[in-house]
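Anyone up for a design puzzle?
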């Protein structure tokens, strides 16, 4: 009996010791604290979707009430060759969200990146005609949105079509179809699920030129009766960009144009920025690895961690103060270990971009956000 008691006690001690997440769950959750403010979400990679990481699984279900697929709903994965769709991961993602009562976002229907090459070319390798590309886009959108009709609450319809200076990205969609590819994409998505919310999603959406073009587009959509519910501001931040004020001005501009704002891909790199200029998230910008660019492989120095927490807290203050405009804030991942920032824009770095560390422990800012939400 005595031995039994000791074993039970040891068992509990072991659980408490290794179970940083178990301990954490005595803390109030983000979703509970923010429930009157906005949805709080995370992007799920394929391991998370299939619940292969029990500690992350526990965190996701406990902390978040919204999910988005990090990769598995991009066109190169959903339709790797024409007319052949692969649904396993996406189906499971939607089931995961439904089983846990979450707000499910589909990401993304039309994007120049992570699209299969066949989409834009004919059998001779030449660009397809405008008509063919429109038909491929229509078919892709109708098939994907139609499959999850009534289950996926909102779609990133078009991703990253506009550059920082406000000009249009010269993507295949743009050069073959023209800028009305965006209008068509939104119309097709609306046809496929009239109840789904529809979003325009992009990075660096605080650059004034980009803001101006997006505001024009939103206003034109409204005037022409094309459904658009929100601008998704990706939110891949660095320690020195954007400023809170720049971000606030952009939120105000989008809200002023008559749409909600969602912070759709939030993370904040703690590492030096390799390129001059805008930072951002254009995945073609990968630059060569340099040791100087990877200074914190043995852990994040306390003062950098504190600065990271402070800045992330300031952004949440902004989001909470604007919760009449901001309807969702979604982190691009869960823990530092699996963040795409470890490989972008430089491969193989050790970054600290997310609210949970490599041991699944909440960073101090999580507690602070909970306190802000409850106030
Ligand atoms: C990223 C994923 O996180 C990576 O795993 C993948 O290798 C590349 O794409 N903007 C977007 C996201 O809209 O889809 C991108 O996700 C990050 C930038």
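Challenge accepted. My sequence:
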């Amino acid at each position: 009996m005595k031995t039994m008691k000791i074993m039970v006690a040891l068992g509990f001690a072991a659980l408490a010791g290794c179970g940083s997440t178990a301990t954490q769950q005595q803390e109030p959750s983000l979703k509970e604290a923010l429930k009157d403010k906005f949805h709080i979400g995370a992007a799920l990679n394929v391991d998370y979707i299939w619940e292969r990481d029990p500690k992350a699984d526990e965190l996701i279900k406990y902390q978040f009430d919204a999910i988005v697929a990090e990769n598995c709903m991009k066109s190169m994965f959903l339709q790797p060759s024409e007319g052949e769709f692969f649904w396993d991961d996406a189906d499971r993602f939607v089931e995961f969200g439904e089983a846990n009562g979450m707000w499910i976002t589909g990401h993304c229907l039309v994007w120049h990146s992570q699209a299969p090459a066949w989409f834009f070319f004919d059998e001779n390798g030449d660009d397809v005609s405008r008509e063919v590309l429109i038909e491929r886009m229509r078919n892709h959108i109708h098939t994907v949105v139609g499959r999850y009709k009534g289950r996926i609450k909102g779609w990133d319809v078009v991703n990253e079509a506009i550059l920082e200076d406000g000009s249009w990205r010269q993507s295949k969609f743009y050069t073959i179809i023209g800028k009305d590819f965006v209008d068509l994409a939104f119309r097709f998505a609306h046809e496929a699920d009239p109840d789904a919310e529809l979003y325009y999603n992009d990075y660096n959406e605080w650059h004034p030129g980009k803001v101006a073009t997006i505001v024009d587009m939103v206003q034109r959509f409204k005037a022409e009766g094309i459904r658009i519910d929100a601008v998704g501001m990706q939110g891949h931040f660095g320690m020195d960009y954007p400023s809170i004020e720049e971000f606030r001005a952009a939120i105000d501009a989008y809200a002023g144009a008559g749409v909600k704002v969602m912070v759709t891909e939030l993370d904040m790199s703690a590492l030096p920025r390799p390129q001059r200029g805008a930072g951002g998230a254009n995945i073609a910008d990968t630059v060569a690895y340099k040791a100087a660019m990877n200074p914190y492989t043995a852990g994040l120095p306390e003062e950098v961690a504190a600065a990271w927490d402070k800045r992330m807290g300031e952004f949440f203050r902004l989001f909470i103060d604007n919760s009449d405009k901001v309807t969702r804030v979604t982190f691009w991942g869960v823990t530092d270990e699996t963040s795409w920032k470890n490989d972008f824009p430089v491969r193989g770095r050790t970054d600290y971009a997310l609210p949970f560390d490599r041991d699944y422990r909440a960073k101090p800012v999580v507690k602070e956000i909970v306190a802000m939400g409850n106030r």
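A detail worth pointing out: The pocket of XIL is lined by residues 70-71, 159, 234, 265, 281, 283, 340 (CB under 6 Å).
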